[in-house]
Amino acid sequence: MKHLSAKKPVLLLLGVLGLASAQSALAIEIQSLRGENDIKETTEVPEVKRYNKDGQPLPRNYVLQPPLIPHKIDGYQITIKHNKCLSCHSWKNYRRHHATKISQTHFQSRDGIVLANVSARRYFCLQCHVPQTNALPLVENTFEPVESVSAQ
Amino acid sequence: MAKRNIAIGTLLVGIVLGIILWGGFNWAMELTNTEQFCISCHEMRDNVYQEYKGRIHDLNRTGVRATCPDCHVPKEWIYKVKRKIQASNELFHKVMGSIDTREKFEAKRLELARHVWKAMKETDSRECRNCHEYGSMDYMAQGRRARREHQEGLEAGKTCIDCHKGIAHQLPDMAEEDPSAVLAVHPEDKGTE
After folding, report:
1. According to the model, what pLDDT value does residue A146 have?
2. Is A73 contained in some domain?
3. CB contact under 8 A, A81 and B172
4. Shortest Cα distance from B82 to chain A (angstroms)?
5. A19 domain residue, yes or no
6. pLDDT-based confidence at A21, cuts 50/70/90?
7. How far apart are CA B80 and CA A5, in angstroms?
8. Mean pLDDT for chain A?
9. Which residues constitute the domain of residue B21?
10. Domain count within chain B
11. Phi/psi of residue B138, nearest 5 degrees
């Protein structure tokens, strides 16, 4: 500081000011997760989403789309020892329970070996197949299904 | 006159004693028929109770609960006493430490589950039906799948446990029960267990 010339504090001050203004500009652009709510106000709680009631199979939107789950799955467990989904959707059980049968592709291991049962990489159904709720789309979506898979 | 007094006295003492002993017996039996009693042993508290917590019979919309004895001890007196006598075998295994670690419990899970399934099947799921009566089910209030499955099940003479295994606890290895609903064993992994 001893060698600091008279000009330097001025530059430093300008620099600090510049940084402060940049910060205030950022503050306007960035929105925190709590939205525009004042810190003293309580955030409005979003509506609780409900899973859709049991219905008919839902139409697919694109080729190779994993079919959606058209029913509730509360309490259905998938553990390393048992897969509740398969108690209806396996090849052995689907007819009796009037369910959609699991795709044959699911029996293949990642090395291409066809196994006698559902392969570990396809075992956790909910990684691809999901039930639906009454939630509205978060952003506008103009996607339209191709005609070949469209339900109309 | 004195003889008559003695007779009446004996009768009264008998009645009072009877009430106390009979009531005491039933009271003591009911004490063992509570959730708190069941989970006073770590075997139940750390395994099956943890799995039961948060599931439909513990946590639900209306707050009606079915606790351990509601499903695992018959309501009717004679069956209840029979079950309580059977429980002496459980006390024996408690002393022997048959399932006193998680590993021991997991090793016995299938066998223990099968005992419960067998009992439920033999009694036509009597304990379920204390609350869930087939005749009082409003199919129209049920979902599409439940409506069909319940009607078909009723016609086929099925009982609750036939489909609702694992409703309150984790299922054991089901490879023998339903080989189509378990994880595939990779050929390279065979024989490692």
Report:
1. 80
2. yes
3. yes
4. 32
5. no
6. low
7. 96
8. 82
9. 1-31
10. 1
11. -90, 100
